[in-house]
Amino acid sequence: MNSMKTQLGIDIGSFNIKVVEVSQEEKSIRILNAAYTPLSSAGFLSEAKTDREAVAKQIKSLLSENGIKSKLAVASLTEMQTFTKIIETPKLSEKELSQALKWEAEQYIPMPLEDVNMDFVILNSDVGADKMQILLAAAPISLVEKYISTLSSCGLEVTALENEGIALLRVFKRSDENRLIVNLAASTTNIYIFKKEIIVLARTIASGSNVLTRVLASDLNLPAASAEEYKRTYGLNEAQMEGRAYNILKPFIDNLVSEITQSLTYFKEKYPNEVIKQIVITGGGAMLPQISTYLSQKLQIETIISNPWEGFTIERKVSDKVRGEESLFSTATGCAVREIEA
What is the pTM of this model? Predict the structure, then answer.
């Protein structure tokens, strides 16, 4: 591959648009650029053409303001927008599997198959007893078309649309360790378990870090912007504000602890000889003060805030610009490095 080839990863959430630009240099990947902007419209959750045009305008501005020149883009589709299921099938060739899944898929995908784009990834071709594990993913054709037409109107060539879990796997898998990943986004929380280098669990919870802002706004009688500021400043720090923010947020974080515990129980039942050594918090919600400490204490498992650029070379201007906010860029980074095998 040409060492100067650059690639763009784009993550359009319900709250922010995040972009990461990378290049491959010899044996390392360089983070050339990373930027985000709050979404000014309903984005792709809306059917209105004006909302899509607003997204395109914001992406164009984000690219030009940050001097991003890449034209090849991989964009992520969130778990909320897609249907994903990890299934076991008999051992088959890719061609046989492709045929078999056309019949299998109907029971997993709650839409007519002619209305979706379907894809699969072989996670593990050796589950024993002549079985293999497959991640089946499907996205409404109408959504895929929205992404491609919007990004094309920004002068970008979409080389792939990526499932969020696969993008995160690319960044956070470890060949010698099992990890649980919590992607704490604005509107949803996604929990993944990576058994070494494969996904064995993907779950979506229909609430995210915006809920924390809303309860702070309601209980402290604050406007949303001030509540967001309180959340970012005080978080789960019991010593601040006489513990008021902590006491308001605690029940919601305890709910997350309960969801993580269910996922850990599932893993232990399915893989009794395996241990999860680490929990990784990523997404915008990872910036909640003291969240990793709180989860470590409750779950008795080491919990860290993600750094999706661990092991990569990072341009100084990037590290200066987004210091402390790296966890926002995990999905976009996973998309950006899709075409690059370092």
Answer: 0.92
